[in-house]
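Quick question, first post here. What does this chain look like in 3D?
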Amino acid sequence: MNLGSVEICIESLSAHRAVEKLSRGGVEVLSAENPQKNRIVLRVAARDMRKSFAILRGACYNIKGVRPRGLARAKEILIRSAGLLVGAVFFAVAVFFAMGRVLKVEIVGSGAYYEREVRAILKEEGVGFFSPLPKSSGAVTARILSLPRVEFCSLSGVGGVLTVRVECAEELEVRPALPLLSPADGTLEELIVLRGTPLVSVGERVSAGQELVSPAAEGSAVIATATVSFPVSREYALGEGAARAQAFLDFGEISALHMTKTSSGWLVEGVARKTAACGLG
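> Answer (accepted):
Ran it through. Tokens below.
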């Protein structure tokens, strides 16, 4: 089996005779260079390295340096970086696994004073620390909306943080008459309108800053939320796990995630989402 080769740098008054010495000892010299007087650089098969040392030292040649080449060099690098590789793999697996789990629950909005009740509902619905992020929020949302004066509720999970927004009617009465604008260029994925006139439909292409919901009447406040999905592609000069984690920090939730190795790091591609809200605190 070819295990690559090694370069041996030799210094001696008769360095040029080292090739002949090795050949007589049964070692094939693959190449030889004489960069300066009394110095020669030989290349032999990696399997012949120990035998070469024995012959050269026995003949009083001064070995100044040894450098693996080819597969031998690759083997040396892998051995030296084994701990780093294991750590990187462990980190990547841990990040990938943790991203789909509930690491923290935040209750926000004007109805945040219902935190105890909301956490109790989440627990009863099987949502808690390190549980999978809920794929469907219908049951939880319906129960929270049944609380007194609660007029709006939404759940969103990004980077292991489950955010529950609860808004109460008395906090939503006085709102500026502002339209709801698109947070990004992309496709309108979700539109919830509690008050106002929707100008676009789910599935349509929208542009950043485009008006999605307008006030229903003069002085009437818009109460609505919209989620826009859009493709992302960004290269990171990081390891695979670190690049994936940084992409989640930069873009939030990313679906259809695809990682491609590049010359300088990793290219992260997928579909991200941005949510905009109006009249919700």
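Residues 82-99 form the longest helix (18 residues).
The radius of gyration is 33 Å.
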